Amino acid sequence: MFGNGEGAGGSWWIILIYIGLFAVLYFLLIRPNSKKKKQEQEMRNNIAIGDDITTIGGIQGRIIAIKEDEDAFVIETGPDRTKMKFKKWAISSVDTVKDTPADNAHVR
User: Fold this and answer.
1) Full domain range(s) for residue 69
2) C-alpha 98: how far from its chain's center?
3) Are residues 27 and 69 in the same domain?
4) Distance CA 65, CA 11 (A)
5) Which residues pair with 73 in a beta bridge?
6) DSSP characters for 64-98?
7) DSSP class of residue 63?
8) 76-102 pLDDT per residue, tens
9) What is the CA 11 to chain-centroid distance, rounded?
10) pLDDT at position 74, please?
11) Can you give the CATH number for the domain in which 102 is found?
12) What is the dihedral of CA 53, 56, 58, 61, to 10 degrees?
């Protein structure tokens, strides 16, 4: 059936194609997604009192308290200074512009 030895070699090509497909999927889909999640978690862990933030629901406010034991924070929003408590995962973005050492190196 496999008199010329071509049948066994053909199955290796299929295995290599599957490995190549998995590698492409990993580098195009899985790796960027995990990198983005890591950056978001780092942003949430680095919040500080006084930071202006936007929640995933679109609520904007300034952080006035951080409750590490509850993994939550309290923001103050609006002219009437309404206070609301959220979980850290609800932060969409930190709107406060902070100077980082890398930013200062470019400015002379």
Assistant:
1) 48-106
2) 19
3) no
4) 61
5) 66, 86
6) EEEEGGGTEEEEEETTTTEEEEEEGGGEEEE----
7) E
8) 998 999 999 999 999 999 988 776 655
9) 39
10) 95
11) 2.30.30
12) -20
Residue among 72, 79, 49 nearest 62 (CA): 49
What residues have CB less than 8 Å from 50, skipping those under 6 apart?
62, 63, 96
pLDDT tens digits, one per residue of 60-78: 999 999 998 999 999 999 8
More confident residue, 37 or 97: 37
Q: What count of Cα atoms within 13 Å lies in the side-chain half-sphere of residue 83? A: 6
Name the helix (H) or strand (E) containing 38: helix 31-45
Task: Please state the domain count of the chain.
Answer: 2
Q: Are 72 and 87 in contact (CB under 8 A)?
A: yes
Instruction: Please state, in angstroms and rounded to a whole number, the distance separating the CA atoms of residues 30 and 35.
Output: 9
80 and 62 share a domain?
yes
